[in-house]
């Protein structure tokens, strides 16, 4: 059997694909169960975080394993296999071990060096153990990954290379200002009460926010988190139900959201309404070319622009040239049905009466029809590939500075909790997984990263040697068992032929024979374990079985006994 991992992460796939491929805990459980039920795999574990989904398995065939795991991953993610395949990565044997160890050390995280991944790996292992989908290989692998991750953090300064995603996100919100100075005196709304939300709440409490409001679908969990913040951090904290989020949004200066919801928790309209309630004035949208009319203002006539002002990913539509839709922020992320409705709306756009009959008016009508056709094409694409992602643009506009934010939004969920179109609202600063990925791509790497990489390489070599040595153990045990059986049979035959021997004599003969056998077997068994630990050493087990004519069933029985012992000794 061999270790195989198939997955996708922020390094291999755009956020729009990761968002659609995200799996809930229940979906991860079902994926692990279906994987071990498939023919190529005997063990399985799923590692799911806000920016990765990976399926680990012990398989007997590489190509069949890759095909089966990729298919299962696509099915459970609800993304077509043909669409998902370009973003998948595959690691096998030592490369798979190297990958997980790197992940555990934070080398593959969006924020290099963050330690939260260790807790997620631990949860993944515990879930696989509870489901009995993790056997000896995955138990050894994940437990060693946890040890390697802890070693990297204790022996190096990898923590200095980066922070948790929460800390990094808050630093992005503060935009270069000291987080403590930026957060002091502000009111914070935290949506969700899971591990990430709890970490965000605790970080905000330590940063000195004036008040923290926790909202969660399960009100008791929100109450528990608020009580912990009050007791452990000395923060002013209270819990509210999810229905109160709209009201709390009008008072919050900082909003952090990380829930398991499959849809949006905060829409751009909800954010705009909260801002309008706070300021008493309509909220404008800031675009790359300037500002759109304030919300509620009379709609302008449909016009044609260029791709530069388009928030959509037009690469998905072949032959697309220019595209700019009235209300472009609303188009981003729409599904196929909504796009079709929007196409009909654009097609019915009007032209200023003062310009009717002019060349400009005729061109506007012609371009509007072409634009509606392009939206239809986008709708057909969205029908097969899902939502049309927004193309994010740098927010500062030359000569048109963005207003000072009145509310700061941090979206740490995958799929996203907060509508990406909210980043276009004047007075809003939105940081989400996508913008964090862009920011972290340019983050400097600490010198300690090289030391961690050396640790990972050493640990991968040691793990491989241990696994190869472990592979030959059942054969060595079977060989010694066969030798013991031979000695026992010969001693019994000697007892029959020399019945006059006393107990002391029989004991001396028995010890002498055992010593001879042990000395003959000692050097070969020690040496074969050493050789088996080296790359390509698996063949030595086959050679032993052939040379000594060992019964394969006997070796398999030893393997089962070892597995049963491991199962008994596993942590609950």
Task: Walk me through what this model shows.
- Helix content is 53%, strand content 11%.
- The protein has helices spanning 15-21, 25-37, 62-77, 81-84, 94-104, 116-131, 136-155, 165-174, 179-183, 195-207, 219-232, 245-249, 268-279, 328-331, 336-347, 359-385, 433-440, 448-497, 503-532, 539-547, 552-569, and strands at residues 2-9, 41-49, 52-59, 89-92, 187-191, 211-216, 237-241, 254-257, 285-287, 290-292, 407-411, 428-432.
- Helix 5 (94-104) packs across helix 18.
- It is elongated and about 110 Å long.
- The relative contact order is 0.10.
- Residues 288-333, 349-357, 387-400 and 564-572 have low confidence and may be disordered.
List the helices and strands and how they pair.
Blueprint: E1 2-9, H1 15-21, H2 25-37, E2 41-49, E3 52-59, H3 62-77, H4 81-84, E4 89-92, H5 94-104, H6 116-131, H7 136-155, H8 165-174, H9 179-183, E5 187-191, H10 195-207, E6 211-216, H11 219-232, E7 237-241, H12 245-249, E8 254-257, H13 268-279, E9 285-287, E10 290-292, H14 328-331, H15 336-347, H16 359-385, E11 407-411, E12 428-432, H17 433-440, H18 448-497, H19 503-532, H20 539-547, H21 552-569
Parallel strand pairs: 5-6, 5-8, 6-7, 8-11, 11-12
Antiparallel strand pairs: 1-3, 1-4, 2-3, 9-10
Helix pairs in contact: 2-3, 5-7, 5-18, 6-7, 7-18, 15-16, 18-19, 18-20, 18-21
């Amino acid at each position: 059997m061999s270790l195989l991992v198939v997955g996708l992460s922020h390094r291999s796939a755009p956020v729009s694909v990761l968002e659609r491929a995200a799996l809930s805990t229940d979906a991860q459980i079902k994926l692990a169960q279906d994987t071990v039920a498939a023919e190529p795999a005997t063990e399985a574990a799923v590692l799911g975080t806000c920016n990765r989904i990976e399926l680990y398995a012990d398989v007997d065939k590489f190509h069949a394993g890759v095909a089966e795991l990729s298919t299962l991953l696509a099915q459970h993610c609800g993304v077509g296999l043909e669409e998902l395949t370009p973003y998948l990565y595959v690691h096998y044997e030592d490369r798979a071990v190297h990958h997980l160890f790197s992940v555990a050390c934070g080398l593959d995280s969006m924020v290099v060096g963050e330690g939260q991944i260790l807790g997620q790996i631990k949860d993944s292992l515990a879930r696989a153990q509870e489901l009995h989908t993790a056997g000896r290989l995955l138990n050894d692998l994940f437990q060693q990954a946890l040890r390697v991750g802890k070693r990297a953090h204790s022996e190096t300064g990898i923590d200095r290379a980066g922070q948790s995603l929460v800390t990094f996100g808050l630093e992005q919100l503060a935009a270069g200002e000291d987080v403590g100075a930026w957060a002091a005196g502000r009111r914070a709304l935290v949506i969700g009460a899971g591990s990430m939300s709890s970490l965000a709440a605790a970080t905000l409490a330590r940063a000195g926010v004036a008040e923290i409001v926790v909202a969660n679908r399960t009100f008791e969990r929100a109450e528990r988190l608020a009580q912990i913040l009050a007791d452990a951090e000395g923060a002013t904290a209270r819990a509210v139900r999810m229905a109160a989020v709209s009201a709390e949004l009008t008072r919050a200066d900082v909003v952090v959201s990380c829930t398991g919801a499959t849809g949006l928790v905060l829409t751009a309209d909800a954010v705009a309404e909260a801002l309008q309630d706070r300021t008493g004035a309509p909220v404008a949208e800031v675009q790359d070319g300037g500002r759109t009319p304030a919300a509620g203002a009379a709609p302008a006539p449909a016009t044609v622009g260029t791709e530069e002002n388009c928030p959509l990913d037009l690469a998905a539509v072949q032959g697309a040239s220019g595209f700019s839709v009235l209300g472009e922020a609303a188009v981003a992320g729409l599904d196929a049905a909504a796009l079709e409705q929007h196409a009909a709306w654009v097609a019915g756009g009007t032209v200023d009466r003062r310009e009717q009959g002019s060349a400009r008016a005729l061109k506007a009508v012609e371009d509007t029809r072409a634009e509606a056709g392009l939206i239809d094409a986008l709708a057909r694409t969205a029908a097969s590939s899902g939502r049309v992602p927004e193309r994010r643009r740098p927010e500062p506009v030359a000569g048109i500075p963005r207003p000072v934010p009145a509310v700061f939004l941090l979206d740490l969920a995958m799929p996203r909790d907060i509508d990406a179109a909210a980043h276009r609202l004047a007075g809003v600063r939105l940081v989400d997984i996508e913008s964090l990925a862009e920011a972290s791509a340019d983050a400097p790497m600490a010198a300690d990263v090289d030391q961690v990489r050396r640790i990972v390489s050493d640990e991968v070599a040691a793990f491989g040697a241990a696994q190869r040595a472990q592979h030959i153990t059942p054969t060595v045990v079977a060989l010694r068992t066969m030798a013991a059986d031979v000695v026992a049979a010969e001693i019994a035959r000697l007892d029959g032929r020399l019945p006059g021997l006393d107990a002391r004599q029989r004991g001396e003969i028995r010890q002498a024979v055992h010593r001879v056998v042990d000395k003959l077997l000692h050097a070969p068994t020690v040496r074969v374990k050493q050789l088996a630990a080296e790359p390509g050493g698996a063949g030595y087990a086959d050679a032993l079985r052939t040379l000594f004519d060992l019964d394969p069933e006997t070796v398999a029985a030893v393997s089962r006994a070892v597995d049963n012992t491991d199962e008994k000794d596993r942590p609950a």
